[in-house]
Amino acid sequence: MDTNEELELRFKEVVERLQEADKLEDTLWEIEADLLDIFGAERFTIFQKDENDKEIVSWYRTSSDSVDEIRLYTSPSSLAGYVAMTRQALMVDDAYDSEYLESVHPDLRFDDAYDRSSGYMSEAMIMVPIIHKDKLYGVFQVINNIDGGAFPDETYFRTVEFAKVVSENFRYELKSSRGAFDQLVEAGVISVETFEEAEEIANDEGTPLASVLKNKFSVNAADLGNALSDFYQVPYHPFDPSFELDPSLIENLNVGFLASNSWVPIMNDGEHAVVLMADPANEELIMEIQNIVKAVYYDFHVAFREDIDQYLGLSSKEEERLKAFGQLDDIMEGETTSVASDELADEDDGDILDSKEESKIIQLVNKIIVRATMDGCSDIHIEPHKGKRPGEVRFRIDGVCRKVFDIPAQLMGAVLSRIKILSNLDIAEKRKPQDGKMGLRFQGSTLELRVATLPVVNGESAVLRILAQGEPLPFDKLMLSKKNESTLIDLLKNPHGIMLVVGPTGSGKTTTLHAVLGTLNDEERKILTAEDPVEITQAGLQQVQMQPRKGLTFAIALRAFLRCDPDIILIGEMRDAETAEAGVEASLTGHLVFSTLHTNSAPETVIRLLDIGLDPMNFADALVGVLAQRLMRTLCGNCKQPVKPDEEYLEKLIHFYGEEFIDELGYDFDTHEIMEARGCDKCSETGYRGRVGIHELMEATPALKKLVAKASPVAELKTQAVEDGMRTLMQDGVWKVFEGVSDLSQLRRVQAH
Description:
Blueprint: H1 4-20, H2 24-39, E1 41-49, E2 55-61, E3 71-73, H3 79-86, E4 90-92, H4 98-104, H5 113-118, E5 125-132, E6 135-145, H6 153-170, H7 182-186, H8 192-205, H9 209-215, H10 221-232, H11 255-261, E7 263-268, E8 272-277, H12 283-292, E9 297-302, H13 305-311, H14 316-324, H15 328-331, E10 339-341, H16 360-374, E11 379-383, E12 391-397, E13 400-407, H17 412-422, E14 434-442, E15 445-456, E16 459-467, H18 482-491, E17 497-502, H19 509-520, E18 527-531, E19 541-545, H20 554-561, E20 568-571, H21 577-588, E21 592-597, H22 602-611, H23 616-622, E22 623-635, E23 641-643, H24 647-657, E24 674-676, E25 688-699, H25 702-709, H26 714-723, H27 729-738, H28 744-750
Parallel strand pairs: 8-9, 17-21, 17-22, 18-19, 18-20, 20-21
Antiparallel strand pairs: 1-2, 1-6, 2-3, 4-5, 5-6, 7-8, 10-14, 11-12, 11-16, 12-13, 14-15, 15-16, 22-25, 23-24
């Protein structure tokens, strides 16, 4: 058996062979036996990141099993998937030691599907991420020490070194997706380093990659064009300065629309049309072009974006002006889907886009709404600035506003007018706030937006809230603590009474209520809801949209419900004494009533309702419980990483939870790890993606009901609720930080101690 020094020497020789090799896969086949001998392993596998960034798939495997490929999610559901997710190496002595895996990460599991299908038994494993310039290309995995037991440390260091060599020399070969210009790299026209540098510049500057390669790296335009032609399987069409575009081809088309979507018709005799496109693979755009350019046969050719601009007669200054116009290229590059107002909805079952009629302003407003919808935005803020400074559009995503782009100052008034027209508001009225609603159709689905305009010192601003249309969230996805979940389930067994979900606007109250109703929704119960607006629909529920202007209010709907033999009633909000009294009355007459309120905590809710005039005795008798909640940003599941909290951070968490209660969590704080935000493409480098609820469930116990009946102060109600087992919003948030869902900075954003 070779000594460690001899193995090290052999490993260096293998590394040298790798560095001199042209193709990794061929070389691996030649050195496979040497590598297994050097690593002292039975097998090794190289995983490649899949195109969807959610999985890794086996790219090279030293086995002859019939399993075609191993495909693993980038998540703790597998060891290699966990390494891909965290980008940290992992050495495991026994893959089936679940206790050890849980100590690494609470959700870490060994995916034994391959073992079960192949009959192989995995034991010791080393997994190392293949990373270059902070970009993940795959995972290198070594399996089973041939001598049995754990791998020695020397093997671990060699696997790390091997992964480094692979990432530095063969990262291009491991790329999961191929672009139009990859063949230029494979043919040696440009180097991998040049190509990667060009990609970085293109991404940073928002410039087409072809332009960067041609203008900054002097790559021949014909080579680039031929590469595009091979990639898209259509002819390449370079700019011909001697060719004069027939003005009639584009006289009824918006040049800004053509430039922002990079296409132009260069020939059309009514039967045969030739169209140049920067992206001939964009099927949606092709369908739109065929609706606009009328012909029997179409030929689509690929062309550089700047060549298309030249055919359109755009100078560089004109091109920059068009880009400044709402930054349309940046807003929706390659996106041509339209939105249509409900006024047009009866004309056609499909999406509507008449580019001959649409102005630049209509295009801009459409694109703002489309971009917001695709980004998961809840509110669109359109805000003017002083003088000639551009106005700006900000999106609220996961509860945080972020600037998306500017609107030239001279266009702000027209944008606001377009929004008012869609919302049936008075476009001449600019001195008073106005509220309205617009219904739009996007990709075959209906969008509803609530619109509020506000006169400000610099003009007029608008906020468009995108109302979610969808299915109810499953109850088990609310991420309630085990105690809150079991208590809430018990409370829902009450045949009558009143259950409240409270919190500020946008805290997810409606989502929670519909998740709760989903557990009660069966054929044995009649459930009626009064909502403003109806955002989530459920089969089996009879849902009523409030229309205050027509006299249909919550109070009136509730009294009508009582004549319709319901078992369960949902009232969207207890806005006034009349609605609250009717809700209590309904609960006392044998109905289970749900509603919401805008209060800061569960105990404060009781006082708020008593202050608006409810009878303390009746309310105490009716009350089942109060669930208060907030929404806290969650760490991005793609890039968050486990860390051991420092002493100061840990002390803060313990302090916020309460030293007298902390032991109930059952953590060993000497070893317990939390998760830390890092940042990646998935979360726009913020480290956060999505939101989760933090909850405070106050059960109406007999002791608490006595205090409510006496209209006791908030402090007494809270003390009793805590004695009864309630944990505050802050405590629930701290638990979620310990569980790796979020961090303290996000908790402090939504909840004061």
